[in-house]
Amino acid sequence: MQRSMIPQCLSAVVIAVLASACTGAPDRDEQNNEIDPGQEVPEATTDPTGDPEPTPEPSADLAYATVNPWGPVLVDGDGYVLYLFTSDWPSGWGQEAVSRCVGPCVDQWPPVIFNEPVLGEGLDAANLGWFTRDDGSRQVTWMGWPVYRFGGDTAPGQASGDGDAQQWFVVPETGYTHLPTRNESYTWLVGMEGRAYYYLADDDIGTPTEDPVSWCTDACLDTFPPATGPAYLPSALDPSDVYTFERPDGIEQLAYRGRPLYTYVEDVYPGDTKADGLAGRWFKVDPYALPPVIEDLKLDFDNLAPGIDFDVLTVPTSRGNVDVTATLVVPNVSATPNPIALFDAECGGSAAGCTGDDEDLFAAGQGQILVAQDPTNDVEPDDAASPAQFTFDLSVLDCDTIEVVEFVAIDSKDTSFSTIPGAIARDTFIDSGFPNLDPNLLGRFGGEPILVDQGVFHLYVWDSGAIDDLTIRCTSESTWWEDR
């Protein structure tokens, strides 16, 4: 498995090199721009973290200053941190930026207004731009995004507005590769240029042990290029949610919470989401409400060694080992633990081998089957009034929801389900509407999935007491990827 976590230092929320101490700039006479010899030079103050307050070049209107923990961020000529608003649209693709901070918003977040700002050392003039607001003022953009000050910052170097409403963020030197933008109805993930990210519902979602699998290949990639490169994230997004994996074609693709990310070539303006819902397969990425991870886990008996007299049979899955036990249920009397046999077509491990009814358990091509033994003769129980109860402990799978999707019962007259163990009469299950299976065929449950309560599932099988192929659906709504 080729997987690369995005290093913490590659996100915008990095552990920055602490700012070195520096003195504050002396006051200047407003008329001649010279130091007034009668004034004292103030001492440098510190931000709440105890780091020296950053001071840009005195002559610069815009500069970078090191602010903990982001590293170099954009500040104005007075050293106040500047912010972008992710509900805005950046400039580019032939159109001006759009500010959605209007009305009362500008009282708290005043736009940065300059006609010809002087740039400090290290600032690339290509990142500078302007657009005209509705009131006629000329607001500065940086990397295409309108920039603002925050009214809650009371001193240079403070950044108390970062993360406000999960939409206001400092402007780091690196910019961002993933931003949560929002309109009146939705939140979705975009790049610094405002281009939306998408996921493909057909892709196999990555797990803690397996990389994602992208089913967008060949010509599909011409329309939906895979997202690549390092990730620089704002504080509202967790760096552990983004990682890279290597595709079979060698491309290092970015994944968000286990889902491969793509862009769409027909999105030509910031804010376009033309592929959202396309063919019922492509969807924009909501970073806070991504659909849960759903995995179908097959309990495969065929890869286990056959044998008899198992008190507990352990079946491996990709999310952990499931323990299976069996009990012979005598209605209204007792529930006696039974050993389990795992038979192949020759009833491997059985002292008597396959004879009589045992041979009838196998259809052509049938794999290994699980049998609740009669402890007296090493064969399956043959009492229509006493079902074999198989108990599957699924709690180890760490799923938020577990459902039984499908199973196969072998040569069974009636098969039913319960999440309550104990001695329950056969008619109780029949009357509850569970399917009766043809005694001469493989009985396959294919109806609505059955919800499993508290991670323990009990399957009752009459007559033969033999089963095969149990499929469990595991839904994870928790952020398991944080523990990768």
Quick overview of this protein structure:
The chain has 484 residues and is mainly beta. It has helices spanning 105-108, 220-223, 357-360, 426-431; strands spanning 3-5, 62-67, 71-76, 83-85, 128-132, 138-142, 145-146, 168-170, 179-182, 187-190, 198-200, 242-246, 252-256, 259-260, 282-284, 293-299, 307-310, 313-317, 320-330, 334-338, 340-343, 369-372, 388-393, 401-409, 415-418, 443-445, 450-452, 456-461, 466-476.
What labels describe this entry?
484 residues, mainly beta, 8-stranded antiparallel β-sheet, 6-stranded antiparallel β-sheet, 29% strand, elongated, disordered C terminus
**Share of residues in strands:** 25-35%
Q: Choose one word for the global shape.
A: elongated
- Tell me the structural class: mainly beta
Q: Which percent range fits the helix content?
A: under 10%
The N- to C-terminal Cα distance equals 13 Å
Query: C-alpha Rg, in Å?
Result: 32 Å
Low-confidence segments, given as residue ranges, are 7-50, 377-385, 412-446, 480-484
* Average pLDDT reading: 75
Number of strands: 29
Report the oligomer.
single chain
Report the biggest beta sheet as strand number plus sense, adding barrel if it closes: 8 strands, antiparallel
Number of helices: 4
